[in-house]
Amino acid sequence: MASLSNSSKSFSVNLYPSANLSVNFPFKSNVQRISWAKKGKLRIACNVTGQPQSQRQKKSKKNKKNEDEDEDEAEKGVNPVGFLTRVGISHKQYAQFLRERHKALKDLKDELFNRNLQIKDVAYVFDFMGLHRHPEHRMDFMEWAPGARYCALVGDFNQWSPTENAAREGRFGRDDYGYWFIILEDKLREGEKPDELYFQQYNYLDNHDKGDSGVSIDEIFKKANDEYWEPGEDTFVNHRFEVPAKLYEQLFGPNGPQTIEELNEIPLLDAETRYKQWKEQHKDDPPSNLPPCDVIDSGKVYDVFNIITDPVWAEKIRNKAPPLPYWLETRKGRQAWLKKYAPAIPHLSKYRVYFNTSNGPLERVPAWATYVEPDAGGGKQAFAIHWEPPPEYAHKWKNSRPRIPKSLRIYECHVGISGSEPKVSSFVEFIEKVLPHVKEAGYNAIQMIGVVEHKDYFTVGYRVTNLFAVSSRYGTPDDFKRLVDEAHGLGLLVFLDIVHSYSAADEMVGLSLFDGSNDCYFHTGKRGHHKYWGTRMFKYGDHEVLQYLISNLNWWVEEYQIDGFHFHSLSSMLYTHNGFALFTGDLEEYCNQYVDKDALLYLILANELLHFLHPNIITIAEDSTFYPGLCEPTTQGGLGFDYYVNTSATEMWLSLLKDIPDHQWSMSKIVNTLIGNKLYADKMLLYAENHNQSISGGQSFAEILFGDIEEHPNSEQLLIRGSCLHKMIRMLTFTIGGRAYLNFIGNEFGHPKRVEFPMPSNNFSYSLANRSWDLLANEAVHQQLFSFDKDLMSLDENQRVLSRGFPNIHHINDTTMVIAYVRGPLLFVFNFHPTNTYERYSLGVEEAGEYQIILNTDEKKYGGQGHVEANQYLQRTINKRVDGLGNCLEVPLPSRTAQGLDMQ
């Protein structure tokens, strides 16, 4: 329920009550701020500020006040430069940037609170924006378009008339912030009479009719009064003027004064005296004859009468529970509504929003539309679709969210290409064919790309047009709900690849030039356009844009039960140069004039709100520049993400496979690239290859390794090489990284073809826009690769490999091309040499005892050669110091093989 006020120039929101909305944020003062306090007191080290003691003593009063505020924040566990202090980084300019950013965040929260009941209401703006059913037999529509002069809702429900359902300033509603409000009354059916109560409400979820059993409204209200009021008390409700009249007559007599002038002639004390005498005379009367209050004239000019309530009576009234059951009984059910009214906008109606602007009339797909048809075809404009199925057909959730696992094994999916046929696959087909495969493969989460509505299919979903809409190419909103529900039933988390870093430049279906102006959702000028991608850049400093994006995140969690988000391409939003610059690692590059502070504030606030409202939510940052503090708590100067993506790993593997001969591979470079930043290794998400290599004009590893084997004279050797490297690359990437691993759909069994979406360059062919699932049944090499990948995932499930913290990498030899490291009780060994086999290779281990091979890439069931004999699977340590460790293990290492060993 929204309240718009032009006089007060404010926009207040009263959200629908629910359990997760009743929690209040802890605040420092009467001004509400988001604050999550941790125990303990943090002191900021002097070397971080880089400020000499003598200068600190000369602080102005203003700086002293800021210092005191920092100490107050530190008491609550907030330190704007906390993560710099923890890791011992001394950089004055960046530390000052973090302090200023923290101050700007507090100011932003104050401003947001001034416009909302609570800051967290920013995450629930979707409750009243867009098109919503109101219980009082009507539809409410709200849109933000500050540049428009006139707003109307047009569609097939009103023959696309721009005048029938309109809102003008000073009529139905346009506030000072540019919000337009339109009420669309349900249509009274022929022969039906209007409701007896003008505020009659209907429960649209109930098919039976509560309160529609023949009991009249008057009878319901009488029953409510009888329950609420004690005998005699309702006299003062039903006859409100009887008591004042009786008092007046007793005070002044039947012929008392009739005008103010006559009233002033009566002595002031005489009135009070008469009243007290009257009350004394009637002290034995029944309660129904005495008012529950005293009327006293204090004799002051500005205070004619004081009303003094009887405290006993007032407390009794306060303790009464209102007779809500009777009020709810007045609500009628869906059947009564359908009988009396036709919906203002029927289910599946097509509609758009109509604006009159300084540049003329415009029609747009509403920014908050939840179901959109972007490819209307035939030169027609795109349109929104009203989705309001009857309750008996709407999806009902049956499975609860799975528990958050200690490690993430993510299966990245694109619904459209997930089928075997050359077409756009649907949510329903994905449920039937792909979800069981993901479960069998041993992954515990799926990450969906291309789900949010976008105009052109070949853009893979990254040029988003409608952030609140599920792509209609794959099915309905309820189809996607069923997909998430079924995934949860299989124990799979569902993550969404979200694109808030830029937006499509389309005008008819997207947000560009939405209200006819160029600065509605995006920056103007060059800053509003991505330098290379032709997309629009959001204006994160605008409050309307900020709440649009934050509420969008919460919408997917609330409406579709999404478990987490992969924030796509943060580099393009964090810098005005969109990340296309040379980074040397100097902290100055992360706080100079090219950094978008507003974008940083948005990410911090989004992470704070998401994790506060949904404590188990998971957020993943994809940033090729590795912005400092990505996964640090926001209270310590970080951005608050749970994981970050190591994008360097896949680039390295591609470079090695395409450009560098096998014998020239550097083991040191491989390890250094894969481990990334040791400080945040536990927060790292790693993958050998994701959708970028198979979609963005590149090749999958399998296409590089197996692509031309059939035409090559040494096809058998190439097949062995390809199979070995495919398994080793995945095993190394999987076991050396952080607590999260990702694989793109089909790559687990070595999909031999890239993905290429239909576009003009390929005559809109779908031949490469699918997955060849038949290879799992008909081709041995793909069966073997899939079998290995399943056992690799099972290794983490059974041995908790990824959740054991950073591995101890104790052996890297560029000459022998051997890598070895210990993770928990497990020892992993890799021999990347293309020809050299080592019968007894010495490796250091800390614990003495017997080690059993539990995973071997060279096993025949995985397509290997089986060079390691059965009697060699168990090895005993010898008392010899190797690699700086107290014991030695001599293991057989055939060329291009890898092993995982467990201590018995």
Describe the structure.
It is built from 25 helices and 35 strands. 29% of the residues lie in helices and 19% in strands. The longest helix is centred in the first third of the chain and has 24 residues, at 92-115. Helix 14 (427-441) runs parallel beside helix 15 (477-489). It is elongated and about 120 Å long. With 904 residues, it is an alpha/beta fold. Strand 22 (493-498), helix 16 and strand 23 form a beta-alpha-beta unit. The model is unreliable at 1-67 (pLDDT under 50). The strands form nine sheets. Strands 5, 6, 14, 15, 16, 17, 20 and 21 form an eight-stranded mixed beta sheet that branches.
How big is the Rg?
Answer: 35 Å
Number of distinct helices = 25
Total number of strands: 35
Strand content: 15-25%
Distance between the termini: 64 Å
Low-pLDDT regions: 1-67
SS-derived structural category = alpha/beta
| Biggest sheet character | 8 strands, mixed
DSSP helix fraction: 25-40%
* Coarse morphology: elongated
* Average pLDDT taken over every residue: 84
Question: What is this structure, in a nutshell?
Answer:
The chain is of the alpha/beta class and 904 residues long. Residues 1-67 have low confidence and may be disordered.
